[in-house]
Design a protein that fits this description.
Blueprint lengths: L1 E3 L4 E9 L6 H11 L23 E7 L5 E8 L7 H8 L4 E7 L5 H17 L9 E6 L9 H10 L4 E3 L8 H20 L1 H4 L4 H9 L10 H4 L9
Parallel strand pairs: 2-4, 2-5, 5-6, 6-7
Antiparallel strand pairs: 1-2, 3-4
Length: 235
């Protein structure tokens, strides 16, 4: 979190983390496509020859609060390949919350666990306390064979404190729901540290409403609360 009172600006950073080809880039591409053009920045992607994200994607979302603070929400992905751990660590610096994108297939369990451990190692390397940085877990690729059953995801929810979202990111399923959960977790963490509601008059509901008022939530679980078609009026 970067809170600049002189410039009346708050910057929130969310990092999408996880194994290579787990769906991190797909998540950001869909979020970017569903965000109103006037409030989104360019989606910056640098890819290798095998279509894996090499550096990161950046999505700035801008809005102004009722108290006159400009809020920027920046979404990053990290490269998934093992050899790019140094880049993952750099991108993770200053993260307010993390969306951990896992592959739902049972065969991917070992790799998911390896990157979960790597996430915590890189948090500590950056001076971040893994117990203090909120993480939301997305189990992606639930349309493929050999995926964990819903009952297994429910067991995972009971074992850990992190919210868990099932997803098929390539179809847009669970993508905005994951974004909602990770932004809500980020806000609550920032509120505990910086008292945003008191100090800059930015409450949780206003924060989330301002973001999702600019995103097309049609066909998602968020549609009822934030129903809007990108480029159109709120319904």
């Amino acid at each position: 979190m970067q809170l600049n009172h002189a410039q009346r600006e708050l910057t929130v950073k969310v990092v999408y983390y996880g194994p290579g080809l787990s769906g991190k880039t797909t998540n950001l591409q869909l979020i970017h496509a569903r965000t109103l053009t006037e409030v989104r920045g360019r989606l910056l992607t640098v890819e290798t020859h095998d279509d894996r994200t090499l550096f990161f994607d950046l999505l700035p979302v801008f809005f102004n609060t009722a108290a006159g603070f400009k809020v920027k929400v920046k979404l990053f992905t990290v490269p998934g390949q093992v050899i790019h751990n140094a880049t993952r660590r750099i991108v993770l610096q200053g993260a307010d919350a993390v969306a951990f994108i896992a592959d739902s297939r049972r065969s991917a369990g070992a790799e998911n666990n390896s990157y979960w451990k790597n996430l915590h190692e890189n948090m500590r390397e950056n001076g971040l306390d893994p117990a203090q940085v909120p993480v939301v877990i997305q189990f992606n690729k639930r349309d493929l064979p050999d995926t964990k059953a819903d009952a297994e995801l429910e067991e995972s929810r009971k074992r850990g404190a992190e919210p868990i979202i099932g997803a098929v990111a390539i179809r847009g399923e669970g993508v905005l729901e994951t974004l909602y959960e990770v932004l809500r977790a980020a806000y609550r963490s920032m509120e505990a540290r910086a008292h945003l509601a008191k100090n800059i008059q930015l409450g949780e509901q206003e924060f989330l409403s301002q973001v999702f008022a600019n995103i097309d939530t049609t066909g998602t679980q968020l549609e009822k609360a934030y129903g809007r078609k990108a480029g159109g009026a709120a319904r």
